[in-house]
Amino acid sequence: MRDLKAIVVDNQLISEEILKLKVYLPETLELQPGNFAMLKIAVKDVFLRRPFSFADYNPNTGKVTFYIKIAGKGSKALLQLNPGQEISMLLPLGRSFTLRPGKSLLVAGGIGIAPLNFLARRLREEGGDIKIIYGIKNNHQLINEVLSEFPDKVEVYNEAGGLGIHGLITAGLLKEDFSDYDQIYVCGPTGMLKAIKPIIEEFSGPIEVSLESYMACGFGACQGCVVKIRNNDEIIYKKVCQDGPVFSFKDVVL
Amino acid sequence: MSLAVKIGELFLKNPVMPASGTFGFGFEFQDLFEIKKLGALVVKTITLKPREGNLPPRIYELPAGLINSIGLANPGWEYFREKLLPELKSLHDTLILNIAGDTVEEFIYLAKEAGKYDEIKALELNVSCPNVKKGGITFGTDLDALKTIVAAVKKVYKKPVIVKLTPNVTNITLYAKAAEEAGADALTLINTFTGMVIDVRRQKPVLGNVYGGVSGPAIRPMAVKMVYDCFKAVSLPIIGVGGIDSRDAALEFIMAGATAVQVGSQNFVDPGFMPRLIEELEQYVNVLKVSSLNKLIGIAHRRERDE
Questions:
Q1: Is B33 within 8 Å of chain A by CB?
Q2: What is the spatial distance between Cα A3 and Cα A5, in angstroms, rounded to a whole number?
Q3: Which residues of A65-102 are buried (b: 16+ CB within 10 A; e: fewer)?
């Protein structure tokens, strides 16, 4: 873990409610898909740092991309950042996705696309085949550049109708023949995780999910971000920040 | 010019240490600075049996701080003794073990056990946790229970015993005096204030445990007052804690009467803060040309006496 001052390279809304923040890191780091950073937002009334997964990282240019959903006062304040400004971040944090060979199904709900975008790029680099099922509530959530980055690999399900297929992400999953895939990766809101659970549970291969939680520190000190995890016959608490955010989907108690 | 202070028989090379529960066991912070730079290492509360902690959500942000209801989640004494203590030895020479018990007997047991380990240099008694049903704050808000626990621990533990008090009482000086009478060597002032937050959209409490403890800069003026009041009421050394996020915030506590300070919530936000605070305090005593930080302890009372 490092505490670095990154420099904002680019910061703009790429849909009505999603901000793309690109920063330059002064040091080369090992950042993996599923890892995240705690961003210091230096404005009044924002006391804690905010956790955001990496949506992309290029170690050659030192540039990190975040996709940030504008939700509360922290993310709103990030809108005001301009290129050239510094922003402190703790990174890298958390346990990353396991990169596996073969064909991967990536299931993203809303801003859950962020870490899966990074993962998809890495899987592709490693020669793996991917398919992304990307569920959004409405057009405001759609990140178009994911579609252009992975042509013919992304299927968008739009709950409100509009861009993509009108319907829920579950409809997309029900059409899938899971025997086509070697593993599944998931990231999305709890409601989506609950909805897809009965559908993907029959898949016998590994399923990894990246979870989110309120966090104070992001690196294991406060124990504030715990979730319930099945461990043999008992249910225990695990820290999203340090034991996760990536867990085996089958172990997570939703 | 020196930052060295003494808490009873405990010598600290500087007055800065983490508040229990905000620093884990110190391992997480090693990436950012050398733990040995701290005046002491205070670890997360250890109880006799492992505790899973409270139902999430356990953390919520406030305008100038946070509220938590962790619930003393910890791996228990046996695990601590076997697995963590040997590693902690290399982290810092001055380890202060914070303990809590559901009963007086548990406090006595833990104190006796801790006494067997040379690397544990002092005990901090947590009689002030607002987030557990038994023990915790119920001991710290009952004068007789507080005296019983402190006296019982003092009887079986020969090294310094520090009592961490709760602010959730009408007059904290009564509890400070009670701890002093029962034989405490020092006081840590203060633990968190009880509070709660309602999620208006969902029309229910935010925290899984409903109630939590409020910390951060929001509570600093109250904490400073309690240190100021207790400095007058007792002659024990005081470790001040509550929203320290800058050099001047630490100095407020020292000038109010604290011999040492603990940093809590700020460790979450700025994990590299404590070593910087130590450097800034060094610069401060150098610029002021005071021979020792000790000269500043309780100095704010002088003004009151002058008038």
A1: no
A2: 7
A3: bbbbbbeeebbebbeebeeeeebbbbbbbbbbbebbee
B54 touches chain A (CB under 8 A): no
Specify the number of domains making up chain B.
Answer: 1
Spot the catalytic one: B120, B129, B163, B254.
Answer: B129
Domain at A2-93: CATH architecture = Beta Barrel (2.40)
Query: Is the Cβ pair A47, B63 closer than 8 Å?
Result: yes
Q: Please give the Cα distance from B241 to B222 (Å, whole number).
A: 11
The helix (run of H) or strand (run of E) holding residue B140 is helix B137-140
Q: How many CA atoms lie within 13 A of A205 on its CB side?
A: 15
Would you call B220 an interface residue with chain A, using a CB distance cutoff of 8 Å? no
Query: Could you confirm whether B230 is annotated as catalytic?
Result: no
The structure tokens 């000190």 sit at A221
For A184, what's the count of Cα atoms within 13 Å in the CB-facing half-sphere? 26
Domain boundaries A103-210, corresponding CATH code:
3.40.50.80
> What are the residue boundaries of the structural domains of chain A, listed by start?
2-93, 103-210
**CATH code where residue B228 lies:** 3.20.20.70
Q: Residue A128: name the closest of A243, A193, A252, A33 by CA.
A: A33
Nearest to A47 among B23, B57, B62 (CB): B62
Angle, CA of A188, A189 and A195, to the nearest 5°: 90
Q: Please tell me the distance from the alpha carbon of residue A143 to that of residue A141, in angstroms, as a whole number.
A: 6
Residue ranges of E strands in chain B:
5-7, 10-12, 16-18, 41-42, 59-62, 65-68, 95-99, 120-126, 161-165, 186-189, 193-195, 198-199, 204-205, 212-215, 238-241, 260-263
Tens digit of pLDDT per residue, chain A (254 long)? 999 999 999 999 999 999 999 999 999 999 999 999 999 998 988 999 999 999 999 999 999 999 999 999 999 999 999 999 999 999 999 999 999 999 999 999 999 999 999 999 999 999 999 999 999 999 999 999 999 999 999 999 999 998 999 999 999 999 999 999 999 999 999 999 999 999 998 899 999 999 999 999 999 999 999 999 999 889 999 999 999 999 999 999 99
C-beta of residue B122 within 8 angstroms of C-beta of residue B159: yes
Is the CB of A3 less than 8 angstroms away from the CB of B52? no
| C-beta of residue B190 within 8 angstroms of C-beta of residue B167 | yes
β-strands A103-109, A183-187: how paired?
parallel
Distance CA B280, CA B264 (A): 18
As a whole number of Å, the CA-based R_g of chain A is 17
Instruction: Tell me the residue range of the domain where B154 lies.
Output: 5-306
Closest by CA to A132, choosing from A173, A161, A189, is: A173
Option in A216, A219, A227 nearest B28 (CB):
A219
